[in-house]
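Need C-alpha coordinates for this chain, all 225 residues.
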Amino acid sequence: MDDEFRTLTERVRASLTSQQETAAHASLLALVRQGTPAAREQLARILVAPEQPLWARETAAFVLGSAGDRRAFETLVLLLNYREPARCATAARVLARLGDPRTARAAAALATNPLRTAYSLHPIRLLVELRAPESVPALVAALERQLAARDRHWVIARACVEGLGAIGDERAIPALKAAGEHIRLSAAAAAALARISVGGSLDPDAAAPPAPRSGRAGTGRAGVR
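Here are the C-alpha coordinates for all 225 residues:
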Protein backbone atom coordinates (compact mmCIF):
# COMPACT_ATOMS: atom_id res chain seq x y z
CA MET A 1 0.00 0.00 0.00
CA ASP A 2 2.93 2.37 0.65
CA ASP A 3 4.02 2.38 -3.02
CA GLU A 4 0.44 2.81 -4.19
CA PHE A 5 -0.16 5.67 -1.79
CA ARG A 6 3.08 7.32 -2.88
CA THR A 7 1.94 7.10 -6.50
CA LEU A 8 -1.43 8.57 -5.59
CA THR A 9 0.21 11.37 -3.64
CA GLU A 10 2.52 12.27 -6.51
CA ARG A 11 -0.36 12.25 -8.99
CA VAL A 12 -2.45 14.51 -6.77
CA ARG A 13 0.43 16.87 -6.05
CA ALA A 14 1.06 17.27 -9.78
CA SER A 15 -2.55 18.32 -10.30
CA LEU A 16 -2.60 21.09 -7.69
CA THR A 17 -2.75 24.59 -9.12
CA SER A 18 -2.45 26.98 -6.18
CA GLN A 19 -0.54 27.48 -2.95
CA GLN A 20 -3.80 27.12 -1.07
CA GLU A 21 -4.38 23.66 -2.56
CA THR A 22 -0.77 22.67 -1.88
CA ALA A 23 -1.14 23.66 1.76
CA ALA A 24 -4.45 21.82 2.08
CA HIS A 25 -2.87 18.72 0.59
CA ALA A 26 0.04 18.88 3.03
CA SER A 27 -2.42 19.15 5.92
CA LEU A 28 -4.32 16.12 4.63
CA LEU A 29 -1.12 14.07 4.41
CA ALA A 30 -0.23 15.07 7.97
CA LEU A 31 -3.64 13.80 9.06
CA VAL A 32 -3.08 10.52 7.24
CA ARG A 33 0.29 10.03 8.91
CA GLN A 34 -1.30 10.27 12.36
CA GLY A 35 -3.01 6.92 11.80
CA THR A 36 -5.21 7.32 14.88
CA PRO A 37 -8.93 6.56 15.26
CA ALA A 38 -9.56 10.29 15.57
CA ALA A 39 -7.69 10.92 12.33
CA ARG A 40 -9.73 8.25 10.55
CA GLU A 41 -12.91 9.93 11.74
CA GLN A 42 -11.73 13.17 10.20
CA LEU A 43 -10.95 11.37 6.95
CA ALA A 44 -14.42 9.86 6.95
CA ARG A 45 -15.94 13.34 7.34
CA ILE A 46 -14.02 14.48 4.25
CA LEU A 47 -15.93 11.89 2.21
CA VAL A 48 -19.28 13.50 2.94
CA ALA A 49 -18.44 17.14 3.66
CA PRO A 50 -19.62 19.66 1.04
CA GLU A 51 -17.20 21.43 -1.31
CA GLN A 52 -14.34 19.00 -0.77
CA PRO A 53 -12.06 18.67 -3.81
CA LEU A 54 -12.08 15.32 -5.54
CA TRP A 55 -8.40 14.73 -4.75
CA ALA A 56 -9.15 15.04 -1.02
CA ARG A 57 -12.03 12.58 -1.24
CA GLU A 58 -9.90 10.17 -3.26
CA THR A 59 -7.05 10.33 -0.74
CA ALA A 60 -9.38 9.80 2.20
CA ALA A 61 -11.17 6.93 0.45
CA PHE A 62 -7.86 5.28 -0.42
CA VAL A 63 -6.62 5.38 3.17
CA LEU A 64 -9.91 4.27 4.73
CA GLY A 65 -10.61 1.60 2.10
CA SER A 66 -7.12 0.15 2.40
CA ALA A 67 -7.72 -0.11 6.16
CA GLY A 68 -10.98 -2.01 5.57
CA ASP A 69 -13.25 0.90 6.51
CA ARG A 70 -16.42 0.48 4.44
CA ARG A 71 -17.32 4.13 4.75
CA ALA A 72 -15.04 4.57 1.73
CA PHE A 73 -17.23 2.37 -0.47
CA GLU A 74 -19.45 4.99 -2.13
CA THR A 75 -16.54 7.28 -3.01
CA LEU A 76 -14.51 4.39 -4.39
CA VAL A 77 -17.41 3.29 -6.60
CA LEU A 78 -17.74 6.82 -7.92
CA LEU A 79 -14.04 6.83 -8.78
CA LEU A 80 -14.22 3.35 -10.32
CA ASN A 81 -16.24 4.73 -13.24
CA TYR A 82 -14.55 8.12 -13.47
CA ARG A 83 -13.27 9.65 -16.69
CA GLU A 84 -9.62 9.48 -15.58
CA PRO A 85 -8.18 5.95 -15.94
CA ALA A 86 -5.61 6.44 -13.17
CA ARG A 87 -8.35 7.16 -10.66
CA CYS A 88 -10.38 4.20 -11.90
CA ALA A 89 -7.44 1.84 -11.53
CA THR A 90 -6.64 3.03 -8.01
CA ALA A 91 -10.27 2.69 -6.92
CA ALA A 92 -10.47 -0.83 -8.36
CA ARG A 93 -7.44 -1.97 -6.40
CA VAL A 94 -8.77 -0.58 -3.13
CA LEU A 95 -12.25 -2.01 -3.70
CA ALA A 96 -10.74 -5.43 -4.35
CA ARG A 97 -9.14 -5.49 -0.91
CA LEU A 98 -11.95 -3.68 0.90
CA GLY A 99 -14.10 -6.82 0.88
CA ASP A 100 -17.43 -5.02 0.87
CA PRO A 101 -20.22 -7.40 -0.26
CA ARG A 102 -21.73 -4.61 -2.36
CA THR A 103 -18.67 -4.33 -4.58
CA ALA A 104 -19.48 -6.97 -7.19
CA ARG A 105 -23.02 -5.72 -7.64
CA ALA A 106 -21.79 -2.15 -8.12
CA ALA A 107 -19.07 -3.21 -10.56
CA ALA A 108 -21.58 -5.26 -12.55
CA ALA A 109 -23.91 -2.26 -12.79
CA LEU A 110 -21.09 -0.08 -14.08
CA ALA A 111 -19.80 -2.70 -16.51
CA THR A 112 -23.21 -3.15 -18.10
CA ASN A 113 -24.32 0.49 -18.20
CA PRO A 114 -24.61 1.33 -21.92
CA LEU A 115 -24.18 5.03 -21.18
CA ARG A 116 -20.78 4.47 -19.51
CA THR A 117 -19.23 1.87 -21.79
CA ALA A 118 -16.19 3.99 -22.54
CA TYR A 119 -15.32 4.03 -18.84
CA SER A 120 -16.11 0.41 -18.01
CA LEU A 121 -12.67 -1.19 -18.42
CA HIS A 122 -11.77 -1.12 -14.73
CA PRO A 123 -15.19 -2.32 -13.50
CA ILE A 124 -14.78 -5.24 -15.91
CA ARG A 125 -11.30 -6.04 -14.62
CA LEU A 126 -12.55 -5.81 -11.05
CA LEU A 127 -15.32 -8.32 -11.80
CA VAL A 128 -12.71 -10.72 -13.14
CA GLU A 129 -10.60 -10.34 -10.01
CA LEU A 130 -13.57 -10.78 -7.66
CA ARG A 131 -14.87 -14.01 -9.28
CA ALA A 132 -18.24 -13.15 -7.73
CA PRO A 133 -21.61 -14.65 -8.74
CA GLU A 134 -22.30 -11.41 -10.62
CA SER A 135 -19.08 -11.60 -12.63
CA VAL A 136 -19.88 -14.00 -15.48
CA PRO A 137 -23.44 -12.77 -16.20
CA ALA A 138 -22.24 -9.15 -16.26
CA LEU A 139 -19.24 -9.88 -18.49
CA VAL A 140 -21.36 -11.91 -20.90
CA ALA A 141 -23.97 -9.15 -21.05
CA ALA A 142 -21.32 -6.49 -21.67
CA LEU A 143 -19.68 -8.59 -24.38
CA GLU A 144 -22.94 -9.40 -26.13
CA ARG A 145 -23.87 -5.72 -26.18
CA GLN A 146 -20.59 -4.91 -27.87
CA LEU A 147 -21.01 -7.67 -30.42
CA ALA A 148 -24.46 -6.36 -31.32
CA ALA A 149 -23.39 -2.71 -31.53
CA ARG A 150 -22.55 -0.93 -34.76
CA ASP A 151 -19.92 1.26 -33.11
CA ARG A 152 -17.99 -1.19 -30.97
CA HIS A 153 -15.56 -0.48 -28.16
CA TRP A 154 -13.04 -3.17 -29.05
CA VAL A 155 -10.89 -2.70 -25.94
CA ILE A 156 -13.95 -3.29 -23.77
CA ALA A 157 -15.02 -6.32 -25.79
CA ARG A 158 -11.52 -7.79 -25.58
CA ALA A 159 -11.40 -7.22 -21.82
CA CYS A 160 -14.66 -9.16 -21.48
CA VAL A 161 -13.35 -12.00 -23.64
CA GLU A 162 -10.08 -12.26 -21.75
CA GLY A 163 -11.83 -11.98 -18.40
CA LEU A 164 -14.29 -14.74 -19.23
CA GLY A 165 -11.40 -16.95 -20.28
CA ALA A 166 -9.60 -16.23 -17.02
CA ILE A 167 -12.67 -17.13 -14.97
CA GLY A 168 -13.20 -20.29 -17.02
CA ASP A 169 -16.96 -20.62 -16.64
CA GLU A 170 -18.70 -22.68 -19.34
CA ARG A 171 -21.67 -20.31 -19.34
CA ALA A 172 -19.47 -17.96 -21.36
CA ILE A 173 -18.98 -20.36 -24.27
CA PRO A 174 -21.80 -19.10 -26.55
CA ALA A 175 -20.72 -15.48 -26.19
CA LEU A 176 -17.07 -16.38 -26.74
CA LYS A 177 -17.91 -18.32 -29.89
CA ALA A 178 -19.82 -15.31 -31.17
CA ALA A 179 -16.85 -13.08 -30.35
CA GLY A 180 -14.63 -15.41 -32.35
CA GLU A 181 -16.47 -14.42 -35.50
CA HIS A 182 -14.90 -10.96 -35.33
CA ILE A 183 -11.37 -10.62 -36.63
CA ARG A 184 -10.32 -8.27 -33.81
CA LEU A 185 -11.45 -10.75 -31.15
CA SER A 186 -10.85 -14.11 -32.80
CA ALA A 187 -7.44 -14.84 -31.25
CA ALA A 188 -8.54 -13.75 -27.76
CA ALA A 189 -11.77 -15.74 -28.07
CA ALA A 190 -9.91 -18.88 -29.17
CA ALA A 191 -7.53 -18.54 -26.23
CA ALA A 192 -10.41 -18.02 -23.81
CA LEU A 193 -12.29 -21.06 -25.13
CA ALA A 194 -9.12 -23.13 -24.89
CA ARG A 195 -8.73 -22.15 -21.23
CA ILE A 196 -12.30 -23.23 -20.55
CA SER A 197 -11.75 -26.52 -22.35
CA VAL A 198 -8.74 -27.27 -20.15
CA GLY A 199 -10.56 -26.43 -16.92
CA GLY A 200 -13.96 -27.90 -17.77
CA SER A 201 -15.65 -30.49 -19.90
CA LEU A 202 -15.73 -28.62 -23.20
CA ASP A 203 -14.69 -30.73 -26.17
CA PRO A 204 -11.38 -29.22 -27.34
CA ASP A 205 -12.54 -29.56 -30.95
CA ALA A 206 -15.45 -27.29 -30.10
CA ALA A 207 -13.22 -24.61 -28.63
CA ALA A 208 -12.25 -23.14 -31.97
CA PRO A 209 -14.54 -20.28 -32.93
CA PRO A 210 -15.93 -19.96 -36.46
CA ALA A 211 -13.73 -18.26 -39.04
CA PRO A 212 -13.71 -14.54 -38.30
CA ARG A 213 -15.62 -12.22 -40.54
CA SER A 214 -13.45 -9.99 -42.68
CA GLY A 215 -15.98 -7.20 -43.07
CA ARG A 216 -15.36 -3.62 -42.06
CA ALA A 217 -14.60 -3.35 -38.36
CA GLY A 218 -16.43 -0.94 -36.11
CA THR A 219 -14.82 2.36 -35.31
CA GLY A 220 -15.59 2.60 -31.62
CA ARG A 221 -12.85 2.97 -29.10
CA ALA A 222 -12.65 2.61 -25.37
CA GLY A 223 -10.51 5.59 -24.56
CA VAL A 224 -11.56 8.45 -22.32
CA ARG A 225 -13.62 11.00 -24.17
